[in-house]
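step: validate -> pass
step: tokenize input -> pass
step: predict -> running
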Amino acid sequence: MLRVKVRIAHRDTWIDQLPQSLRHEFSREELEQMLEQFSDFDESGGGSIAASELIQLMKSMGIDATLEEVEALIEKVDDNRSGELEFPEFVRLISNFRQGNADKLGTFVQYSKLALQLRNELRDLTAHPTNYTIVSGIKDNAWEWELHIRGPRGTPYEDGLFRFHVHFGNDYPFEAPTLICRTRVYHPNFLMNGTMALHGFLSNWLPEWRMRGLIERLEHLFETPDPEAMDTFERETSERKALETSEINGSPTKRTARQCRDFTMQCISTFKHDRSQFDTIASQLTRQCAQPPESELE
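step: predict -> pass
step: emit ->
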């Protein structure tokens, strides 16, 4: 994991030594944020980012670039010809990006702010985890996480370990991340279609949730399924069926989708009308599909 290497005592010095034009273009708060970004990427702590470091960082954000290409991009802003990206040059890149002079390095600078935010959220969740969830990043990919949620005690999911894959888009947190459960689970708020997508869960997403809020709400679903989401799914499925009456056979994809919805409708009905039977099925599936290695239960 990358860490902030620049010592706090140097922060004011670095910002105050920027050219006057850059200090006037950005607010003090913006420059502080840029310094935090830069420091986070300065893996060696030497006050500059080498081309080899930049390549790995760019690749983690989905930006492909060769060593020669990155060296050429650095050269455009490399005032002292060091061959590396230093803080004043990093700020100039952001200035160029604001003015519409974008290239791959400018795109990296734009993405780096979001990547830093995600790393900060990941660090916070690692240091201060929620009740049932272990969060981990995916190596060399800034935009994806894995969640391992332990089934809460006193529920049919007790002793299970449920794996979720999270993908962040460029508009996070204003746009909800994509969330897919990799473990089969019998639950009235999950679509039983192989991907175990949650229906309606993210429709009320708010930017202030961030990942901690999302995870806490997801944990709560394992304790108390959302009745409003169930009602919405039942209503929308009934309306969809009315429109599909003329497509009794349809394509294989449509037939699979109908089977998925029918299975989920059956799950919801069992939950509402025969809770004992629901708990039995959910517990059995948890034992069959959600048993973690002993090391993950410790």
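step: describe -> The chain is about 50% helix and 10% strand.
step: cleanup -> pass
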